[in-house]
Amino acid sequence: xxxxxxxxxxxxxxxxxxxxxxxxxxxxxxxxxxxxxxxxxxxxxxxxxxxxxxxxxxxxxxxxxxxxxxxxxxxxxxxxxxxxxxxxxxxxxxxxxxxxxxxxxxxxxxxxxxxxxxxxxxxxxxxxxxxxxxxxxxxxxxxxxxxxxxxxxxxxxxxxxxxxxxxxxxxxxxxxxxxxxxxxxxx
Length: 187
Hints:
single chain, four-stranded antiparallel β-sheet
């Protein structure tokens, strides 16, 4: 029974770590005024009738702090890439010169910065809810273990450990949000 408790605690930590990883990936997509290839993650291009991630049909780089350069591996892909970026509704205006697609990332207005901070906080809250749901499910599992014969003091110790894990991961979410908010609000 104690081995089961340890296994559940390890799995709980792994699930909470996945929630943090997901948050990091989502925060990476929120632009903070500086050009980054990750801004285009999640964009799919029509590649001969198949929806294909942009990263699989082109090379994406930043030439400077405000410009993203997309170099397709096939010249025929320039217009589908341009169309996909426009349709993604990211607020970018792609320009092509027949060889590459350039995106000039516009500077953020104060209002837009505040909107991005709200979006960042919403992502953080989503991560916190996920972590709390993992905690709830684990606590319920420990209660069933106690009903099946796990000594109550071991069950309470395990619940305390889960609460400690939850507190640590919630603090990590707050740190990520703080850093992202500072990044967004820096002009």
